[in-house]
Amino acid sequence: LFRDPQVLDEMSLGPQTLCLQRIAMRPYLALPPSHCQVTYIWINSSGTEPMSKTRIMQNEPESLEEVPVWRGVHKRELSLVPVAIFRDPFIRGPHKMVLCDARNRDGTPATGSRREECLRVMEAVKDQKPWFGFEQEFVLKTLEGLPFGWSSATAPPAGASAQVGLERVFGRDISLSHYNACVYAGIKMAGAAGEAMPAQWEFQVGPSEGIALGDHAWMARYILLRVWLSLGQRGGHMNFSTESMREEGGLRCIHEAIERLSQRHTQHMALYGGPENQQRLNTIGINSDFNTFSWATANRKSSVRVPGHVSQRGQGYLEDRRPAADCDPYLVCKALVQTCCSPGAR
Ligand code: ADP
Ligand code: MN
Ligand code: MN
Ligand code: MN
Ligand code: MN
After folding, report:
1. How does pLDDT run across 230-255, given as a tens digit for each residue?
2. What is the pLDDT of residue 4?
3. Separation CA 147–CA 125 (nearest Å)
4. Cα–chain-centroid distance for residue 32?
5. pLDDT above 70 as % of the chain
6. 286 CA to middle of ligand 4, Å?
């Protein structure tokens, strides 16, 4: 096995144990299926990380309704209620990945599970057709903790975002693998790009209506964890529109929404991420200020940006640049709708 030049090449990618496991197990992962494996995925009690557990089904489920609730899971005795079904890009075949809403035994949402409260708000404004698109930034790291491809903790010279070239962008194959796996699974992806700092990347999910964005963003994070490691900290941007913003003359509605957002800055920041986000947004000259709301057209140093092309067309969407990379997209979408959509918004 280890005389194979391709294998040796892959060994140098990272810690030997990780590579050894991935390479040596490959033949078994490719065994033809004789049944259907369904991986249940839910969000942990701190609302920050996906968890997963797999069970066998004799027949391939044809729809979400055919996937049973999994009861008595974990020491918390959770019930995992299936809410969205995807193809499994890791073992392919008939196998499935199912995103679940974790419930307590009495049926209430488990701690960390924010989907239900988001869904309720989305149902209430359904007729306004809210769309969301999430830009998830992340840093690829190795098990030793350094960003992928870095030889020391000192950053290699930063270039520009979207640049090309092996010596400037680190880990493109990982980003591509993640992207392919997400598309295969059935996640609505919008794109992906390298960022200025080598090993920093971004993928975009959406645009998706209502609760679907949160579901798809969480699944894309889960797949990133399976393809590689946990996310390093960076930012996340939530793009948002309603039907009236997307229609001719919608810019007026975008401005109205921005006015409402400006009045609830503190409340939004409390839901958009932890202390690291405060640090990130206080890096003068790169981002907006954590404590102050600002907005601008075609300027990325503001809390909210109206893309230049949206301003020119007079319709489209706005971009909220304040969320942290590890925000809960359910909470961000819910806050945007509550502030911008409900009549007489607080
Ligand atoms: P940028 O880096 O310029 O901010 P990206 O291309 O990285 O923009 O991301 C744009 C995001 O906006 C994507 O996630 C896309 O799905 C989303 N998007 C596009 N149109 C809309 C819309 N009308 N409403 C909400 N989101 C949208
Ligand atoms: Mn982007
Ligand atoms: Mn970005
Ligand atoms: Mn950014
Ligand atoms: Mn953006």
Report:
1. 777 678 999 999 999 999 999 999 99
2. 52
3. 42
4. 31
5. 93
6. 9
180's CB contacts (< 8 A; 6+ apart) are 89
CB atoms within 10 A of CB 227: 19
Residues for the chain: how many in total? 346
Which H or E run contains 1? none
Cα dist from 47 to 23, 50, 100, 112, 210, whole Å:
32, 8, 13, 4, 19
Task: Report d(CA 315, CA 312) in Å as an integer.
Answer: 8
Identify the pLDDT of residue 20.
78
Angle at 183 between CA 71 and CA 323, to 5 degrees: 75
Would you call 189 helix, strand, or coil by DSSP? strand
Tokens representing residue 336 in the block: 């945007």
pTM of the model: 0.93
**304 CA distance to ligand 5 middle (Å):** 10
Q: Which atom of ligand 1 lies closest to the CA of 241?
A: 24
Cα–Cα dist 180/2, whole Å: 27
Q: Which residue has 């960003």 as its token pair?
A: 147
At 281, is the secondary structure helix, strand, or coil?
Answer: helix
Torsion angle of alpha carbons 217, 226, 81, 183, nearest 10°? 50
- C-alpha of residue 229 to centroid of ligand 5, in Å: 23
Confidence (pLDDT) at 1: 39
Output the pLDDT for position 40: 98
CB of 190 shorter than 6 A to ligand 1: yes
Whole-number CA gyration radius for the chain = 21
Find all residues with CB under 8 Å of 173, minimum gap 6, and list them. Answer: none
Alpha-carbon distance of 243 to 317, in angstroms, equals: 10
Task: Tell me the pairing of strands 200-209 and 236-241.
Answer: unpaired
Q: Which helix (H) or strand (E) holds 226?
A: helix 212-227
| Residue 129, ligand 1, Cβ within 6 A | no
Q: For the chain, which residues score pLDDT lower than 50?
A: 1-3, 8, 11, 13, 344-346
* The pLDDT of residue 337: 98
Kindly report the protein residue whose alpha carbon is nearest to atom 11 of ligand 1. 133
